[in-house]
Structures are given as C-alpha cells and as structure tokens.
Design brief:
Number of helices: 2
Helix content: under 10%
Distance between the termini: 51 Å
Order of helices and strands: EEEEEEEEEEHEEEEEEEEEEEEEEH
Structural class: mainly beta
Shape: globular
Number of strands: 24
Radius of gyration: 18 Å
Mean pLDDT: 96
Largest sheet: 9 strands, antiparallel
Low-confidence stretches: none
C-alpha cells in the first residue's frame, strides 16, 4: 500500500563557515530527527572562479558518519586517520568518525585552479551507542561503481548504499541498514519507489519539482518524510528533477547532537567538546 506523507520540510539557509551557506531541511523546527538521519545539508550549485582558494578547514567529528553525495564538481577529503580521497560528480563518500578525528573537505586543487561548478548534499548518519567509540574508517565509490535501479525510460538513478531493487550499493559498510539512491528523473516521467515497511523513508528534491502520490506538488529544496507503514510511494516529475532517496532502519536511542558531534547524552557531547579543546582529537595540517 502507498505510504502517506508525514512532513514536507523546506531547506532553510544555514551558515556553516564564514564563507559557506547551505540549505538545511533536517533538523527542522517542525521535525528534528529521523534517526539515523540527523542532518541534511545541500550545498547549492556554486560557480568557483579559476584561482580561488576555498576549503573547510580541519574540524572534529565523533559518534556518527558524514556521507557526501557529489552532484557536480569534484571534492577532496582528508583526515588524520590517514584517509586522503577525491570524489567526482555522481560519486559518494562515507566517513565513519567513530571515537573522533579531524578532517578537512572542499573543492579539489584542480577545481580551484581551473574553475567549475560545485554542488553536493551531505548527510549525517547516526550509529548505535555500542558503535560510537569504534575506530574511524572511510569508503568511497564512483558513479560507475554504482548499479542502476528503478530502470525505465526517463530515469537515471544510482544505488549508493544498501540493498534495493535487487541490487547492492558499493558503500555497504554500515552498522545498521541504510539505503541511499541519487540521480535524475526526466520531466513527465512517473516512478514507483518500493520502500521497506518499518523503515524511515525520505526524499529530498535537489532540483526540479515532483508530484508525490498523484496528490502533493513539492518543489525543489524540500524534504519529504513518509510514514513508516506501507511499502511504496509514487513520484511524477513536473520538470527535470534531481533527487536523493534515503531509507533506513530506525535507531531507537536518545540523540544528543551539538556542533560537530552526535552522541546519546548532553554530557557526552560536552565531553567531546572538552576533548577537542584539549587536543585529544590530534592535529591535521591541511
């Protein structure tokens, strides 16, 4: 049966550094978390001029996994756990911060040198309490490594993580099941999305506009959160659209999220802040 819509959350501008502003549909004043999905940030298309100097300087994380979906451009990731990687348009990366690390991210030197357009969505995926203090790890995949799903004329949708539509995504290291699909739907195309009953199911419209379940018209930069019951929903593209579909097994634990940390209690977050101030997270020169 068809999943009904529980929330439509508009992305609001949020300044994350002195230079960078993103759209944030989650958390939202009307709905905080869809645990394990804690944060969704959309860095809209940005034209980078040749010779630019731009990066998000080293900052700490603990207790969750930042996952980045690159829609345009090329981004680097470097952390003090030894990971140094690049993702290009259509690719994705998943960094588990675990007990804590420092990382830096931003447009690659090539993009900064030559110029180009940069666009991405980053989400924060929570992990169970028992896993928060594990060793950090990293996984990444190119567009070519991702299997196509929901194939039909007018769709170009790639499975990034999890098992879906008979396929398995390349970013398959996760503590709880997380399905993510990124890609495009051409104007006039209708698509049925199967969705696991009992899981969170979220649909973010990166650009374009959709009609959901033949009822609700939803423009770009909105996040649709569906009920957990039932097993499918339908979209119709009113214009050429880019989407990010997320679905996951809920984590039924308390969430304390502040600054760059996602823990279970406020005390654990304050401890993370203190640890960072005291140099426990180490150093990263980049």
């Amino acid at each position: 049966m068809t999943k009904s819509i529980e929330h439509i959350l508009a992305g609001r501008e949020k300044k994350i550094t002195e230079q960078e502003t993103v759209l944030q549909p989650l958390p939202h004043k009307d709905f905080r978390f869809a645990n394990p999905f804690i944060v969704i940030h959309h860095m809209q298309p940005e034209q980078i001029l040749p010779g630019s100097k731009q990066r998000i300087h080293p900052h700490p994380h603990r207790g969750f996994a930042p996952v980045t979906f690159m829609f345009q451009g090329e981004g680097y990731h470097k952390d003090n756990a030894g990971h140094d990687e690049v993702i290009s348009a259509g690719g994705a990366q998943w960094m588990f911060a675990g007990k804590g690390l420092l990382h830096s991210e931003g447009p690659t030197d090539r993009i900064l040198r030559n110029g180009g357009t940069q666009e991405l969505v980053q989400i924060w995926v929570n992990v169970p309490k028992a896993e928060k203090w594990g060793e950090p790890w990293y996984q990444g995949a190119t567009k070519e490594q991702m299997p196509s799903v929901l194939q039909q004329p007018g769709t170009s949708l790639k499975l990034v993580s999890g098992e879906y539509d008979g396929q398995k995504g390349p970013l398959n290291k996760s503590f709880t099941p997380v399905i993510s699909v990124m890609g495009s739907i051409e104007k006039g195309t209708s698509v049925r999305f199967p969705a696991t009953p009992g899981y969170w199911s979220l649909l973010y419209i990166v650009n374009g506009g959709l009609t959901i379940n033949d009822k609700e018209k939803v423009p770009a930069h909105n996040l649709v959160i569906f009920e957990k019951d039932n097993d499918e929903f339908f979209v119709h593209a009113n214009e050429n659209s880019t989407i990010l579909f997320l679905s996951a097994e809920p984590i039924d634990e308390p969430v304390a999220a502040k600054d760059n940390f996602v823990m279970n209690t406020a005390e654990e977050v304050e401890q993370a802040i203190t640890d960072y101030q005291n140099g426990v997270f180490g150093t990263l020169s980049y």
